[in-house]
Amino acid sequence: MARRALKLASLAAAASGIYLYGHKFLDPNDFGVVRVGRAIATTAVITYDYLTSLRSVPYGSEEYDFLKSQVHLRSAERLRELCCANRGTFIKVGQHLGALDYLLPEEYTRTLKVLHNQAPQSTRQEIEQVIREDLGKEIKELFVSFEDTPLGAASLAQVHKAVLQDGRTVAVKIQHPKVQAQSSKDILLMEVLLLVVKQIFPDFEFMWLVEEAKKNLPLELDFLNEGRNAEKVAHMLKNFDFLKVPRIYWELSTRRVLLMEFMEGGQVNDRAYMERNGINVNEISRNLGKLYSEMIFVNGFVHCDPHPGNVLVKKCPASGKAHIILLDHGLYQVLSESFRMDYCHLWQALIKADMKRVQKYSRRLGAGDLYPLFACMLTARSWESVNRGIDRSPVSASEDVEIRSNAAAYLPQITQLLNNVPRQMLLLLKTNDLLRGIESALHTRASASSFLNMSRCCIRAVSTYQRSKSHSLYRRAQISLAEALSLWQINLYELFLWLKGSQLGNWVIALLSRMHHSMY
């Protein structure tokens, strides 16, 4: 009798499981043992591949480099499959790795980039559940219309277009319901696995990735924090009339639901969209550089996720001006004053090709004897270009290939550097690489104007800091005069570059040349 009851109970449990799974109420990914087992298995396979595939091949040979590239590619694909299967935090970390174009082997970044387009989507039932739990009402009570298909889905949340009862069109950002519960366990799992891998490969230094995830994920999962960041950056950069940040509707926002003003446009890396809509590509690139120079060097409050889906462009029908729309304000880096000043001085030295100061400020930022590599990582230029001056010549295709190849060749040194530099530097490096990716897509990379804007911001930031530390009125006046002269020199040089590249400039040069020849 007991055996029969047990058999019936087992059959009932199995049938219930099949029914729940078939109707999407039950997901194997919800079980910790499935997620942990999948992560352990993937890590073991990748580790075994690296240990065995390169063991009998002479280091540094062509065969070694070819096989290493193949192992990188296989491992990146396995990692991508793991991220897609475990979703949530795994996709977030995978996206972070995919953004490090000039810091990781190309096989990894190219393979993991697709994770920006492969984020999971929550079902209508899950969305209704989150809204019901957080706002205490049903979707139909809050909205006249609510589009089922999300405008975009990311690793932690998805966004839907909706219309409120009063007629306002809004964007509703809703957190995936299971992410909050799974995130801390996923990070712990990653930490354990990375520690195990480090025991096998002592040069493997990726603990910085886990430390960053530990610090940043709780902030990104708090949508009220995101709303506060959006309002802060909008106020901070209010002098830039080309910048638009969606307004937050606080009365219908919680830690898991964020209601914003609806804004739309083309992605910032979509050159074809800009050309179709009469948007000046060079102007967009310049303005994006101005925004980030102001955030990094002057304010020390930096939007650290400028991938193309978070930066839109749109031409205003009324004024004809092109606007940059900045979305997703969950991840910001706050820079300390001392770090910001050292970073300003370092970039000034890099632009002027002042190698002594490059070494000095790179060391102050934790690079040690690896300061040449650090300079190359920051600028995504070869050491030869850094010595010559990064504003003297644009990046060539061969130099770009060289930089990407070096990312694989110097991986142990790069990971060592990432462990040594201040934590504030990590998100800046990721931000730099995302911005370079946008510039590459627009074919505007390494323009002289971007370095001039950086120089202006560095001069203003350093002068403001020096004035704040000076108690002498005469000294403050000296600092202000030196600042004005430096900015005037930059303006003059910018005018020279404009004349040099314009028809008027060519006409003046031709006239002067003709006058010179007629005199002799």
Automatic annotation (TrEMBL):
GO terms for biological process: lipid homeostasis; mitochondrion organization. GO terms for cellular component: mitochondrial inner membrane. SMART domains: S_TKc (SM00220). Residues 145-474 form the Protein kinase domain. GO terms for molecular function: ATP binding; protein kinase activity. Pfam families: ABC1. Belongs to the protein kinase superfamily. ADCK protein kinase family. Appears to be essential for maintaining mitochondrial cristae formation and mitochondrial function by acting via YME1L1 in a kinase-independent manner to regulate essential mitochondrial structural proteins OPA1 and IMMT. The action of this enzyme is not yet clear. It is not known if it has protein kinase activity and what type of substrate it would phosphorylate (Ser, Thr or Tyr). This is AarF domain-containing protein kinase 1. It comes from Buteo japonicus.
